Amino acid sequence: MARLACPYLAAEVDLTAERETHIAEHHPDLLPEHRHRLAETLANPDLVRRSTRLSNVHLFSRWFDTIKSGKHVVVVVLSESTPTARHWVVTAYLARRLAEGGAEWQRN
Per DSSP, what are the bridge partners of residue 61? Predict the structure, then answer.
């Protein structure tokens, strides 16, 4: 299991082997080639949105010109508060455009 720094959450985010396998199988354009971009996105996102379906899920995104002529890396993080705070990657993917939705935080 990898632990990725996330200053926005003031915590580390877990990336389990099972979730990494899921991402590689469902989004092979992202993993394994761009694995390091997950950590970069969590450490320094362009935008953080709250999920419209689940209030304890954040979508971190960052634009990279160097991925397929320009793509957003989106990392979906679930935060559990009980019994102890834990944050873990549910999935991650590449997107040309981001879905509509309210921004919780955006880089100026």
Answer: 47, 74
State both tokens at 91: 């999935």
Q: What is the pLDDT of residues 47-102, one digit of tens each?
A: 999 998 898 999 999 999 999 999 999 999 999 987 788 999 999 999 999 987 67
Q: Model-level pTM greater than 0.90?
A: yes
Residue spans of alpha helices (H) in the chain: 17-26, 35-43
∠ CA(7), CA(103), CA(5), 5° rounding? 15
> What counts of helices (H) and strands (E) characterise the chain?
2, 7
Would you call 60 helix, strand, or coil by DSSP? strand
Spans of all domains in the chain? 2-98
Per-residue tokens: 43? 């450490």
